[in-house]
Amino acid sequence: MSNTKPDDKSLKNQLDRAQRDLQMLYDISIAMRSTLELQSILYIILTSVTAHYGLGFNRAILFLVDPHKRNLIPEMAIGPDSLKHAQEIWQYIENQNHLLDDLIEENISTQNRQPSTLFKQISDLKIPLVTDKRNLLADVYHSGEPKHLDESVIKAYLKDPLLEKFKTDELVVMPLKARDRVKGIIVADNRFTKDPITDESLRMFTMLANQAGLAIENSQLYEKIKHKSYTDSLTDVYNHGFFQDQLSTEIEKATENDQPLCLLMLDLDNFKKLNDEFGHQTGDQTLIKIADILKHSAREMDYICRYGGEEFVVILTNTDKDDAFTIAERIRENVASCRVKDLPDNHSVTVSIGIAGFPEDAQSKSELIESADRAMYVAKFSGKNRTCLHSDSR
What we know:
Elements: H1 6-32, H2 38-50, E1 59-66, E2 71-78, H3 83-96, H4 100-109, H5 117-122, E3 127-128, H6 136-143, E4 147-149, H7 151-154, E5 171-178, E6 181-189, H8 199-229, H9 240-257, E7 261-268, H10 271-278, H11 280-297, E8 303-308, E9 311-317, H12 321-336, E10 351-358, H13 365-381, E11 387-389
Parallel strand pairs: 10-11
Antiparallel strand pairs: 1-2, 1-6, 2-3, 4-5, 5-6, 7-9, 7-10, 8-9
Helix pairs in contact: 1-8, 2-4, 2-8, 10-11, 11-12
């Protein structure tokens, strides 16, 4: 017969629970420090919130703050589509005996799959950071404090943009802070299990959120530094080093997938004369203007880079020469119709553009650059302000 007193058993259970909680937070902390890539960090955070080894919530959505537009933007969501789907996931996890590391590895390895149904439901939300007690996420952002809402409190937010799409009977809204500034917000609930959200789970969630906020801040700082390392400081487009690396990568992809690839090379016409007549500051303003036109004239899938001096290049992925010519002409026309500050209205800025295609015109990166460069010089020496294909230079 055991001599353990009930109070001793209760104390032992409390100590065991505290030890498990500390071990869980330690494991989550180690996982968050394993990478600086933002998307991986967000997966780790949400997996920690929803995993059975973590906090065990059924669903979770992570919003990040866009400081420029003063909005909260949904970045990621984890959660089953239905009760049946939830039961299948839980049974799979139980059968596989997955721990946190296993779940994180699975999540990160499937990042390129289609977004979850949960994310699709809320992906178009942009929550303005206005001071409004009726706006749940904005309210939490400004207070910096978590909110636990049961069914009776949720009714007060009937017109809340999130709750109109995220149907639930009970939820917690947790700010993710670093240096007393809110970096993001997690919304989590137990839609399928109906498990109550306890004070203990809120306490653990708050401790996890403190780590998550710092992890997000570190990742964002890393992204800024990485962006600066491959961005031209004047024009804010990719620099020459990035261009060389990315072109190699895109040629490999084009070869593997048997897809066309085109390269545009642009040179500002009479740029030396412009600098001599109006000064280098005006020349810099012209380069910035051209880069801005390129950003708006090209597609999201394209890579705009400053090659050097007054030359730019655009990598057109999965694009044949007919489509490349259409894009190049759009760029050329947009440049010709632009106006640059400090230049007189009668002074037009134009570009000459050369186009080369892979593998039609070149079999290697160096040949592709040389072919586009040769086509560009044909455009310059045949009158400027025009687009020429590599075939025109033969």
